[in-house]
Design brief:
The chain is mainly beta. Helices cover about 10% and strands about 45% of the residues. A hairpin with a 3-residue loop joins β1 and β2. It is globular and about 35 Å long.
Length: about 130
Amino acid sequence: MEEIIIENEEIGQIHAKLLKEKNPKTCQAIWDSLPLDLNLSRWGEELYGAIPVKIPEENSQLECEVGDIGYWIQGSGFCIFFGKTPVSSSDKPKAASEVNIFAHIEVDPSIFKQFTSFEGKVIKVN
């Protein structure tokens, strides 16, 4: 349990490192739920959408880093942060409400700027 892959036809496969030290229970819950289908909407420079996983708060936060992937507690959502959101007060992404950050994209996350919505999958790297 080290990495996940976000994939679709436009971007191929994007690797993200799991942040097991930061949120181990969230990482395990996401890992155990894979593969997941993603149907994400855009909010500023964030893609988010509901997934069929319920995870409680674990070291949650509002301020994020570009490239972070989080679990949105309030909306049972999968979030990809690649820039400013409408509630950002700096160049960093800021979530609408608390998220458990569980992974970080290992390449330039601006690849997600091309999408107004995103359909794809999240799979395990074995």
